[in-house]
Amino acid sequence: MKLYIYQYGFVLDKTTKIPVPGFLIQTDDGKNILVDTGFRKEDPFSGNLLAEEEDTVEKRLLSIGLAPSDIHYVICTHLDPDHCGYHDLFSNATYLIQQEHYDLAKSGANSRLETYRKYWDLPHLNYQVIEGDFELVPGIHLIHTPGHMIGHQSVLVKLPTLGSVIITGDAVFRQDEYLSEQANDLDKEAQMKTNSIRKLKALEKEHNVNLVVFGHDPVQWPHLKKSPEYYQ
């Protein structure tokens, strides 16, 4: 099993460059599992987005010899625009999404989820809705972590050499939030967020996690291996 970390670009917050990550997990039996697809480079949802030519999911996949048609699953942490901009590319994949988040998105009640609806709400995309924690394949677990938004999910990956890794997604933007267990201004449900952080901390101990990758941490980002390097 291998874990690649993709750089999809940055959001400029005053003078701080906030990373926008994605992930590819390759299993030993040849499954390619993508976690989030990033923001749409040619249709940015904000004027403060910074991206180079190679900072798209398609270019990141190509750099390790893959095409969108090679992806078997897309794990959708949630449908904020910086996480779902290229959903339309993966017509061969099964999308894994929490039922309550999919229902919220389809309802049209959340304006953030409407931003890129034209890319995620398409008839050729195959969504598999799940409820709660879910083992996708051996060693890859989807973890229900609401708070940033209803139905958000994180990912636990068990690698053969490094050991267990938690991909928090936006359940935890930065390490300081993880330590303080506090919500930020973009989180919809503060108490749910705190509960989800505590859940992730419990999983960290239970599974002897050796790496927690936070959702948008500019301090952690330079210290992570980026594709084409990988964790194993």
UniProtKB/TrEMBL annotation:
Keywords: Hydrolase, Metal-binding, Zinc. Its cofactor is Zn(2+). Pfam families: Lactamase_B. SMART domains: Lactamase_B (SM00849). One of its GO terms (molecular function) is hydrolase activity. It catalyses: 3',5'-cyclic UMP + H2O = UMP + H(+); 3',5'-cyclic CMP + H2O = CMP + H(+). Belongs to the metallo-beta-lactamase superfamily. Counteracts the endogenous Pycsar antiviral defense system. Phosphodiesterase that enables metal-dependent hydrolysis of host cyclic nucleotide Pycsar defense signals such as cCMP and cUMP. This is Metallo-beta-lactamase domain-containing protein. The lineage of its organism: Bacteria, Bacillati, Bacillota, Bacilli, Bacillales.
